[in-house]
Amino acid sequence: MVVTSTVVNCYMPSPAGLQTKFEADFEAKYPGIDMVITSGTTGELTAKIKAEKANPVCDVLILASWSDGIAAINDTTNYNILAYTPKDSDKLNSAFKESTNKIWGTSASAVGVIYNTDLVQKSTIEALDWADFGNSAKWNASTYPFSIPDPTKSGACKDFLAGFVTAGNGQTVLNSWVSNGITNGGGNKAALASVEGGSIAALIAGVDYNAYSDKKKGQPIDIYYPKSGTVVNPRPAMIMADGAHNDAAKLVMDYLCSEDAQKLVAGAYLIPARSDVAAKSDRLGLNDITQFSNMNWNTMAEQGSTIAQNFVDAIKNRG
After folding, report:
1. What is this structure's pTM?
2. N or C: which end of the chain has fewer CB within 10 A?
3. Chain-wide mean pLDDT for the chain?
4. How far apart are CA 184 and CA 147, in angstroms?
């Protein structure tokens, strides 16, 4: 491939430390190409893409929500995504691939219950399934306040709710959480900070890589995945065809699927996409996490935003 670009603009979500390592490693491997990273949440990045439609800037877009990646493929008004098969993409787990070859999961996260270990006993809370948090006899919210990341801000939480609801009777459980006093914790970072600070005892549907990373740093928290399952959320990467640097963007996609990049993914406590790269030893890997059965990502993409907004409204309007 003849590459004439001297810059490639990449929009991607946290963690910031991984972004910095990607940038340094990519530029070392491809001298003369400057990787310019714009960081933001999935919602912020998708809004930026739409705002820049008349004057596209982004070359490679990475989101923290697989359903938002699917939605982007279908939204041809705002997204023009280039089909491309990256080098080494054959080594990705099947769940990280999509039939059009327009989006590729190059890492993943899952959500679980993150709790403050100074406030809650491990043996007590880890016996609880999702539905138990809506039962005041099993979870006393007055004694142990609990929250959830705002699913209109957290793509991972939104996809969890969509998977939970569309795969079965999750809406009934969500309603019971509202009745039992769950609060809206805001964005992922703010929601986790409340658990670490002790004002919140447990965070429902908290993003796992943040929890594992902060636990390693000494924060009094732990995480578990309730026995009935959860959502493992591939983070889709895609080339914006309207970007000015498609040749360099293809190299970024190749790089994201490379063994070196995948090892950096693992080091950031995310789940690697490649089947031959192991997750960090002090976190559960892809095959160790039970996922909801009967999930349909297309259905989740269609209904996720509505489910998320309805849930946020229900908390806000609780009597």
Report:
1. 0.94
2. C
3. 96
4. 6
